[in-house]
Specification:
The complex is a heterodimer of chains A (about 160) and B (about 200).
Chain A: E1 12-19, H1 27-35, H2 37-43, E2 48-53, E3 60-65, E4 70-74, H3 80-92, E5 105-106, H4 146-163
Parallel strand pairs in A: 1-2
Antiparallel strand pairs in A: 1-3, 3-4
Helix pairs in contact in A: 1-3
Chain B: E1 3-6, E2 11-15, E3 32-33, H1 36-39, H2 46-60, E4 67-68, H3 71-86, E5 94-99, E6 102-107, E7 111-115, E8 125-128, E9 131-135, E10 139-143, E11 152-163, E12 167-173, E13 178-184, E14 187-198
Parallel strand pairs in B: 1-4
Antiparallel strand pairs in B: 1-2, 2-10, 3-4, 5-6, 5-9, 7-14, 8-11, 9-10, 11-14, 12-13
The chains are: A alpha+beta (about 160), B alpha+beta (about 200).
């Protein structure tokens, strides 16, 4: 799927509107053909539109795409404006079959700076260390602990007592 | 990630493998290596913010000692990135953009699907303006929170507007005669990323 990398090409090739000339459930489709179809064809000169009247059959639209995919949508008892929307949806689709997407993202270049691994940016001296290593398992304090501060206080007390 | 520096305006710059591969990248005479235990109390004012960043780095990253860089070093970093850009050998760039409430990591020719209502029509070429991060093979520019419009330009084309597959919502409470079955399809918009352009950094 390289559409849109250079320029966008409408993927809809042909659209067939089938309907009945007399039946009531095709009324919306007939209304659409009378009032809105010419606007659609003018706006989309690249799309071939076929009209297919069939007696006593449900109205439906068949859309054929450049990749060979065909989709048919039955639209009995739909109003003209609803059919407008469906036709527009057929136009904006790319012909890829609708499936559940596992990811909302596709890429051919998953990593630019290289994949992360647990040894990234680690010191190379770790390669020859034997574990458990005392130095690396040492707890590092960011702040002075209560014990330390108490010990310090004790020192000052001792000093002051010595001076006395 | 060897050194963490704050640039003047809105860009934080992480340097990565500019020189040799293993050593921390920016090692100059002017750098002072601060160990946080001793110096944190003496840090004040403007550098306080930097220190919080350092503690963060200390807690969550693999870097043991955080280097505090000076103004001159940030300008050096900017120069290095600018030279790369000038020579046109930046290679492939990637970016993190914020589109319709979600952050995506993208490079050129990627395809992303935006869920929900999205205004642009099929064939429109749009510019993704909320760029949070741009990176090349050996440098990364991070916005705080976003990079300016003048610096980066990410463009995309709307390729498809479609509906998702049918999503089932089914609720059922036993012994209570409650049963609801509903099918719905969400609108989806497919974007192709055309370009990620990076302009020169101003020092």
């Amino acid at each position: 799927m390289n559409n849109g990398i250079g320029r966008y090409v409408c993927q809809l090739q042909r659209i067939t509107l089938s309907f009945c000339k007399s039946h009531a459930d095709s009324r919306g489709m007939r209304d659409f053909i009378e009032n809105h179809l010419l606007d659609f064809t003018k706006a989309n000169p690249g799309v071939v539109v076929y009209l297919k009247p069939r007696r006593h059959r449900k109205p439906r639209i068949m859309a054929q795409y450049l990749n060979g995919y065909t989709e048919s949508v039955p639209l009995p008892n739909h109003r003209a404006d609803e059919i407008c929307k469906w036709v527009d949806l057929m136009k904006t689709r790319s012909g890829v079959k609708v499936v559940r997407l596992r990811k909302m993202w596709h890429t051919d270049n998953p990593s630019i700076q290289g994949l992360w691994h647990p040894f990234l940016n680690k010191d190379t001296s770790l390669n020859i260390k034997t574990f458990p290593d005392k130095e690396h398992y040492k707890f590092e304090q960011n702040e002075k602990s209560a014990t330390d501060s108490l010990l310090e206080k004790m020192k000052t007390v001792k000093l002051s007592s010595e001076i006395d | 990630m060897a050194a963490r520096t704050c640039l003047g305006s809105a860009v934080r710059l992480f340097s990565r493998n500019f020189g040799s591969k293993n050593a921390p990248t920016i090692t100059k005479a002017g750098l002072e290596t601060i160990s946080l235990q001793t110096n944190q109390d003496s840090l004040s004012g403007a550098s306080r913010l930097n220190s919080t960043a350092c503690t963060w780095a200390r807690k969550f990253s693999t870097v043991r000692k955080v280097q505090k860089t000076q103004e001159s070093d940030t300008t050096d970093l900017i120069q290095l990135v600018n030279e790369k850009l000038h020579k046109d050998n930046v290679g492939r760039l990637f970016a993190v953009v914020h589109v319709a409430g979600k952050q995506r990591k993208i490079t050129t020719e990627d395809i992303i699907v935006v869920e929900g209502d999205f205004f642009p029509d099929v064939g429109d070429r749009i510019r993704l303006e909320k760029v949070l991060l741009v990176g090349g093979s050996d440098f990364t520019l991070t916005g705080r929170p976003m990079l300016s419009r003048d610096l980066v330009k990410v463009e995309a084309t709307v390729v498809e507007k479609t509906l998702s597959n049918f999503k089932v919502t089914f609720t059922y409470i036993r012994r209570k005669g409650h049963r609801k079955f509903n099918l719905r399809r969400n609108p989806q918009t497919v974007l192709v990323i055309n370009s990620i352009e990076l302009n020169k950094l101003s020092s």
